[in-house]
């Protein structure tokens, strides 16, 4: 009998046999799952996942004797799993192409496929080809920890699913694209990375002995000491400008070295700061050690020419098989609770790692229930340590989700360090004030940054400053490329001591490396106020910077948690609260949690307990998804950059859209909510140019100061 095939001929004319593919996938999946004690189960999943390819219909397509669409091939392995009382294997085998089912949908699907397929005939064919292997039921028992609760078991299925789909992708890639497969490997051990980091740290700290750097060195030393402690949850509480990025990485590398962990995952809330963080690490470790994974990353399409670095980056973003991953919290958590193979294949590589959650206070409070549970799963069962890193620590141990977990303090003397690094004086305006009063203060200072609560308020303040010189604006009304150019211009002007008056939203508050002598902040949530103050006298060059807090008498506030945070902040500021005391944020967050509706998060956790994988993926979003991307024709500060025009022409001329073009357009996109899109469409300001990608083109004026806020329309009241 002819050999059964798994894959058709590759570019060299070689086919892959089914037995080779199944054994290869089983072996790779076992290696992945051995890290959490499920290697044998992953091995069986690998052996069974493509058994359905043994049917005559599928073999006819693979051998080139039929041009019909290949029939589905997941059901045989899924049915066998069900018959062996291994429902969890049925989940992952049935989902290894389309995604994990909801539990009831899986039952219905298996029932339907059992009727439709001739299982007995297929099994006989498999036995004839030495392909069929059944294991005793005892060996298909999941690890004890997975059986202790429904949430444990649900997350275990996710991790086992990841092992199978990544192994399947990798072996298929090795057959069809062997050169790509070879490009994945890079020789970077944690020990080597630590040596590079230590060398760079000595070079950097040897240059300056001022008081700010002395405090940064103290935080760094405390981080190294804490790295020797057992794995678990950690908290790095350090003031803005205290060197958290470097110290947290130092902790992670030494901790990984101590506990033989495989990688560092550095998760950041905003794409606006992820690139500068990744660049800091590239300067230390080189390009090959870093994978930067977020929606704005520009990576060449596999159908276009690529250099080695581009190819490797695109491949490694698929499964995070690199020693240092720099990503967004959105990408991290939505992958952990996804159901699609492409997003889930990286999950097994999150085990045996250190996760740094930078600006941890930005995690959506209403989703704490599922977020903290998956972190707890990783720490307790998958050899992960988690670092909550921020100047304004949320009071996580006061929540039931982490009530039984100890969080180890990395910076044990945080209050003293905050006092030592006090670089600003807070001035609270006693009465509400109008935008015209704020504009007068701005006009009277050459250099200042004013942060408003909404984009709408930022535009209103710009109206008050329309005749003032040297005014700049940053918000998400500007596309990312425009914002980067404005930030570069501002940074250069500040260094040259030139006038610079910036009006912004919270888009500049976390991690953006700018340093103003004066910051004005519309009162908002307390943690946002402190983040804003971190852009004032950041390098300690002044005796004290000046931060003015004011409550606008006009304008609006974003709804939800932001508004609750504003109310809590107003009450605390009435008490003449010391904003340089890190303990005040524990009090603030405890009070804030009492006003938060945790319903959405609890519903997701209940869906997880019912194994509703598809529903969880659809309902869990760190960032609201009811926005639409709009291309803006931003041609640079000097109006001479035609890159966006070339990309737009390529997008419109291609019959089949390329993911490369979509990615390359990311720097020129502004996201608008559905209500804004409808309003702009009605006014003729946008045109839908790509229904498949839900992509729009901005037809109105794109202003060098206001971005899309330059037209006579009223942008919705958004946070950023």
- Ends: how far apart? 65 Å
Biggest sheet descriptor: 7 strands, parallel
- The domain tally reads 4
By CATH, the topology of the largest domain is Rossmann fold
CATH superfamily of the largest domain: P-loop containing nucleotide triphosphate hydrolases
> Are there runs of 5+ residues with pLDDT below 50, and where?
296-314, 716-720
Number of helices in the DSSP assignment: 29
Over all CA atoms, what is the radius of gyration? 27 Å
Instruction: Identify the quaternary structure here.
Output: single chain
Question: Which percent bin holds the helix content?
Answer: 40-55%
Beta-strand segment tally: 19
Mass-distribution shape: globular
Task: Tell me the layout of helices and strands.
Layout: E1 5-7, E2 16-17, H1 18-33, H2 39-48, H3 56-62, H4 75-83, H5 87-94, H6 103-116, H7 119-128, H8 150-176, H9 178-183, H10 190-205, H11 211-226, E3 233-237, H12 244-259, E4 263-268, H13 271-285, E5 290-293, H14 308-319, E6 324-328, H15 329-336, H16 341-344, E7 353-358, H17 368-381, E8 384-390, E9 407-409, H18 414-420, E10 424-428, H19 435-443, E11 447-451, H20 455-464, E12 471-474, H21 480-495, E13 500-504, E14 518-522, H22 526-533, E15 545-550, H23 561-574, H24 583-593, H25 599-609, H26 613-619, E16 627-631, H27 643-653, H28 659-664, E17 669-673, H29 674-682, E18 686-690, E19 695-698
Parallel strand pairs: 3-8, 3-9, 4-6, 4-7, 5-6, 7-8, 10-15, 11-13, 11-14, 12-13, 14-15, 16-19
Antiparallel strand pairs: 1-2, 16-17, 18-19
């Amino acid at each position: 009998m002819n050999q059964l095939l798994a894959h058709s001929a590759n570019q060299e004319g070689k086919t892959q046999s089914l037995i080779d593919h199944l054994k290869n996938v089983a072996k790779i999946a076992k290696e992945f799952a051995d890290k959490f004690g499920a290697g044998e189960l992953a091995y069986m999943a690998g052996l069974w996942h493509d058994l359905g390819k043994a049917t005559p219909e599928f073999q006819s397509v693979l051998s080139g004797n039929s041009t019909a669409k290949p029939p589905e091939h997941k059901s045989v392995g899924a049915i066998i799993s069900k018959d062996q009382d291994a429902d969890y294997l049925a989940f992952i085998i049935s989902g290894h192409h389309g995604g994990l089912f909801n539990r009831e949908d899986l039952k219905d699907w298996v029932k339907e496929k059992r009727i439709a397929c001739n299982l007995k005939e297929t099994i006989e064919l498999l036995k004839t080809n030495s392909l069929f292997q059944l294991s005793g039921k005892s060996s298909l028992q999941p690890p004890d920890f997975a059986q202790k609760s429904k949430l444990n078991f649900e997350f275990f299925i996710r991790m086992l699913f990841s092992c199978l789909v990544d192994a399947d992708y990798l072996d298929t890639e090795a057959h069809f694209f062997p050169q790509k497969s070879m490009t994945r490997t890079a020789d970077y051990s944690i020990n080597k990375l630590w040596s590079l980091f230590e060398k760079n740290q000595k070079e950097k700290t040897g240059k300056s002995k001022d008081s700010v750097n002395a405090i940064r060195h103290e935080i760094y030393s405390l981080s190294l000491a804490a790295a020797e402690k057992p794995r678990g949850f950690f908290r790095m509480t350090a003031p803005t400008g205290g060197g958290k990025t470097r110290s947290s990485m130092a902790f992670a590398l030494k901790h990984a070295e101590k506990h033989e962990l495989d990688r560092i995952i550095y998760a950041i809330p905003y794409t606006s700061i992820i690139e500068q963080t990744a660049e800091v690490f590239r300067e230390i470790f080189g390009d090959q050690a870093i994978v930067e994974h977020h929606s704005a990353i520009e990576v060449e399409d596999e159908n276009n020419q690529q250099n080695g670095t581009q190819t490797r980056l695109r491949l490694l973003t698929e499964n995070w098989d690199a020693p240092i991953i720099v990503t967004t919290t959105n990408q991290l958590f939505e992958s952990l609770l996804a159901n699609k193979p492409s997003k889930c294949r990286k999950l097994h590589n999150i085990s045996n790692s250190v996760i740094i959650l930078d600006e941890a206070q930005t995690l959506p409070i209403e989703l704490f229930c599922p977020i903290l549970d998956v972190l707890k799963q990783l720490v307790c069962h998958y050899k992960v340590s988690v670092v909550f890193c921020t100047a304004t620590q949320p009071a996580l141990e006061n929540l039931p989700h982490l009530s039984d977990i100890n969080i180890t303090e990395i910076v044990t003397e945080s209050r003293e360090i905050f006092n030592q690094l006090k670089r600003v004086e807070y001035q609270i305006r006693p009465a509400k004030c109008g935008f015209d009063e704020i504009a007068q203060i701005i006009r009277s200072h050459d250099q200042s940054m004013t942060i408003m609560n909404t984009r709408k308020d930022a535009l209103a303040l710009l109206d008050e400053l329309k005749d003032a010189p040297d005014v700049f604006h940053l918000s998400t009304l500007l596309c990312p490329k425009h914002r980067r150019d404005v930030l570069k211009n501002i940074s250069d002007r500040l260094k040259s001591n030139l006038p610079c008056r910036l009006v912004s939203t919270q888009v500049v508050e976390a991690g953006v490396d700018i340093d103003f002598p004066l910051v004005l902040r519309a009162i908002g949530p307390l943690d946002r106020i402190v983040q804003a103050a971190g852009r004032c006298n950041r390098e300690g060059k002044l005796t004290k910077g000046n931060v003015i807090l004011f409550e606008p008498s006009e304008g609006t506030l974003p709804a939800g948690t932001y508004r609750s945070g504003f109310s809590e902040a107003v009450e605390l500021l009435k008490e003449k609260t010391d904003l340089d005391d890190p303990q005040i944020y524990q009090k603030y967050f405890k009070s804030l949690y009492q006003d938060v509706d945790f319903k959405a998060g609890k519903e997701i956790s209940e869906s997880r307990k019912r194994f509703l994988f598809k529903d969880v993926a659809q309902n869990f979003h760190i960032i609201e998804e009811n926005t639409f991307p709009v291309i803006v024709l931003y041609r640079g500060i000097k109006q001479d950059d035609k890159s966006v025009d070339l990309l737009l022409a390529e997008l419109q001329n291609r019959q089949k859209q390329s993911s490369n073009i979509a990615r390359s357009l990311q720097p020129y996109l502004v996201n608008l909510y559905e209500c804004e899109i409808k309003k702009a469409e009605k006014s003729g300001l946008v045109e839908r140019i790509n229904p498949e990608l839900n992509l729009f083109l901005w037809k109105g004026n794109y202003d060098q100061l206001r971005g899309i806020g330059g037209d006579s329309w009223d942008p919705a009241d958004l946070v950023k």
